[in-house]
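Hey, can you fold this one?
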Amino acid sequence: MPYPNPEYPAARRWYAVEELVEEAMAAADVVGLGRWASINQRFQYLIQGIVQRRTKAAVANFVHADDLSAFFAVLDKTDSAIGGSTALSVITPHCNWKPHDLNVMAPQDSSGRWLAFFRHHGYQGQEICLGELGEYEHPRYPVLQGTVAHAVYLFQHDKIKVQGFTALRESILTEFQNDIVLIISNSNSCMTPIIGAQTTSQMNAVTSSHIYCLYPSLTTQSIALRGYYANPADKYSPMALLSDRRDQLRVQQLTYHESSLDLN
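Sure. Predicted structure:
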């Protein structure tokens, strides 16, 4: 490919080409980024910057701009990760829907630090745990205590107002706009709630500089398989897919399959 202007100094020509390459990278999903990263270390550096910008832009819909640096500092120091629809939007930037909430997956021993962060920065929160078995009866966050989560908290900041596409029901669209869901793992790994998600499309994690996708081929093809979402009353018996999760899959334009056998 010819340089944009052969009269430019060599260094200037190189950076002009690099800008074009970075522009192409910026539109790539997680599979495409992996292919670019395999070429050389310079591309890996560029991709890390792209991931950081994507993640910051996505989180800014839920965390006040003044709190972003402190948020990512706590995320890194506690070995936590971002999951849910926000992580999915970072992994698949071509999506035409907006994340409906910000899920923060945190190790069990980091709950104190996270609660202190949200309260110090003026976020209003509540623990959403009800039921004898520790079932979270919140209309949109039925995470099950005793299986993958030790505790779940819901936070909001009055200064953050975004319109998230959360479900097909208009009442949900207007009621829930800027939820931050803090999910405390029942182990000292933030990956426990992610691996225990209802569908493979939720099995993603994003940190301040890295992205992780357990099923990249399926996710980038807009396919979601059922995960083993354990029942707290009988951990050997999976829960049925919740109706709200089905709504979200439709909004996210994902094709759902109960089994990998359905793909054949």
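The CA atoms of residues 182 and 237 lie 26 Å apart. Let me know if you want another pass with a different chain boundary.
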